[in-house]
């Protein structure tokens, strides 16, 4: 089934959103992707962060599982989270 490209979040299930994020991560060029160790360490930092709410960083508004997949991205609180 063709996915709707212009649905609002309220029209999507959580599963659809997660699947879309995973697909987008898989399609990133390898040169732009954070390696697994970096990715996982970032996720663990976010898990302990008070800015994380339902998968979204309240500082930058990003889904952290997507943002963390980009090698060049950084936590908006970089000074506090030097590994990110
Ligand atoms: S990106 Fe930084 S500020 Fe946002 S949830 Fe992760 S650790 Fe917290």
Polypeptide structure, described:
There is one protein chain. This protein is mainly alpha-helical and 84 residues long. The chain has a domain at 30-84. It contains 3 helices and 2 strands; from the N terminus they run ααββα. Strand 1 (52-53) and strand 2 form a beta hairpin. The mean pLDDT is 90.
H and E string: HHEEH
Low-pLDDT stretches are: none
The count of helical stretches stands at: 3
Rg (C-alpha, Å): 14 Å
Helix amount: 25-40%
Sum up the overall morphology in one term.
globular
Topology diagram in text:
Blueprint: H1 14-27, H2 36-47, E1 52-53, E2 56-57, H3 64-67
Antiparallel strand pairs: 1-2
Iron/sulfur cluster is lined by residues 45-46, 49, 51-52, 57, 59, 64, 75-77, 81, 84.
What's the gist of this structure?
The protein has 84 residues and is mainly alpha-helical. The chain is built from three helices and two strands, in the order ααββα. It has a domain at 30-84.
List keywords for this structure.
84 residues; mainly alpha; two-stranded antiparallel sheet; 36% helix; 5% strand; globular; binds iron/sulfur cluster
């Amino acid at each position: 089934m063709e996915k709707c490209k212009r649905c609002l979040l309220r029209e999507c299930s959580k599963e659809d959103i997660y699947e879309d994020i995973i697909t987008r991560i898989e399609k990133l060029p390898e040169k732009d992707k954070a390696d697994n160790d970096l990715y996982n360490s970032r996720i663990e930092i976010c898990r302990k962060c008070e800015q994380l709410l339902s998968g979204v960083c309240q500082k930058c508004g990003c889904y952290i599982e997507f943002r963390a997949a980009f090698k060049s991205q950084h936590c908006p609180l970089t000074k506090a989270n030097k590994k990110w």
